[in-house]
Amino acid sequence: MPTLTKLYSMEEAATHNKQDDCWVVIDGKVYDVTSYMDEHPGGDDVLLAVTGKDATDDFEDAGHSKDARELMEKYFIGELDESSVPEIPELKIFKKEQPTDSVQKLVDLTKQYWVVPVSIITISVAVSVLFSRKR
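Structure (tokenized):
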């Protein structure tokens, strides 16, 4: 059966992100909450903060009542076009391999901090050369 509601892309919903024009997306549904901004118990800044993204988790985390969920239907204007939602790429996890023995750790630290011993040796040589010329 074809969809009877209007479909909106997330990009389109995200453009409605102002006090006088505010849409939110919750559970794949798009709501025009512009007229509800002043009445929202959490304040208008809460609604403005969730424009342009899926606000489902934010909505659920707030613990809205059954009455609040019923009130939402008054502001329903359409559904999110799922084909317009960009696919999130799968993350690749790389594990840095750790040296197995203390000698390897020491070698790695020496490679990482080679500037300190070289600086100490350079300063020592320079000081010995300067003091040997004064005699």
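The radius of gyration is 31 Å. The chain has a mean pLDDT of 82.
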